[in-house]
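Lab meeting, item 3. Inverse folding demo.
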């Protein structure tokens, strides 16, 4: 079962699991650092790729999809017999007609798992080239990131540190050693200019700041990317909306861990 759970990271990131699967995967993820890291990377990817392409779906999109469903063949083509005759043809002399056989019939459980993986890849491809589905994929990515952040905050070994922010507001950092992850919780941060965003930085033992998550002002928990488990502190700056590789100003907040 655990081997199959490793394949659900993409589906979890896109909120494509049912309740039972989600519960089982979240329990697995508490003990699997590789899956936590992969889910975090998926949660990061959606907003970055869709940031310049996200558009509202046109009013005609729903009608177009429903119309396409009625014109799309739902079964694979019929397979003829070894003599080249179509399997569905019978004559009046046939006393024991054989049912038509369909190509590539596989168990429904395998089809469902493979279909889910294809759906994840298709959604990611659509997101990469832009288009009308970008808005929906971005929403599911953000939802997945929020779910992961909640798991970190609910961990039994979660520890919290807090700091004031220059200009107003506070930030808390919640870190869980067992989850190998940390979450930044902003409170009452001032809104940034339209072309600016807040960016978190992870400080290592030498004091070097490593780029982490870029986020807008608000109060939603933010899952921090990077090696949060080994960080000695978390800094906060205001950067261009696309983020920076190095801080462009002094931190407006530093949370010691």
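The presenter then showed the designed sequence:
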């Amino acid at each position: 079962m655990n081997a199959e759970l490793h394949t659900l990271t993409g589906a979890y990131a896109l909120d494509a699991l049912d309740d039972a699967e989600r519960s089982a995967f979240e329990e697995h993820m508490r003990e699997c650092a590789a899956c936590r890291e992969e889910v975090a990377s998926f949660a990061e990817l959606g907003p970055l790729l869709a940031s310049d392409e996200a558009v509202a779906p046109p009013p005609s999109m729903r009608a177009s999809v429903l119309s396409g469903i009625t014109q799309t063949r739902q079964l694979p083509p019929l397979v003829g017999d070894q003599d080249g005759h179509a399997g569905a043809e019978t004559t009046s002399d046939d006393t024991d007609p054989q049912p038509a056989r369909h190509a590539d019939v596989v168990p429904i459980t395998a089809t469902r798992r493979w279909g889910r993986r294809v759906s994840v890849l298709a959604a990611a491809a659509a997101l990469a080239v832009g288009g009308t589905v970008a808005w929906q994929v971005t929403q599911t990515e953000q939802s997945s990131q929020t779910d992961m952040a909640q798991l970190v905050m609910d961990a039994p070994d979660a520890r919290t540190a807090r700091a004031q922010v220059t200009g107003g507001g506070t930030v808390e950092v919640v870190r869980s050693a067992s989850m190998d992850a940390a979450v930044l919780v902003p409170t009452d941060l001032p809104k940034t200019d339209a072309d600016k965003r807040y960016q978190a930085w992870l400080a290592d033992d030498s004091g070097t700041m490593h780029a982490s998550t870029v986020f807008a002002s608000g109060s939603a928990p933010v899952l921090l990317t990077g090696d949060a488990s080994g960080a000695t502190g978390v800094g906060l700056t205001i950067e261009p909306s696309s983020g920076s590789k190095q801080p462009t100003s002094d931190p407006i907040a530093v949370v010691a861990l």
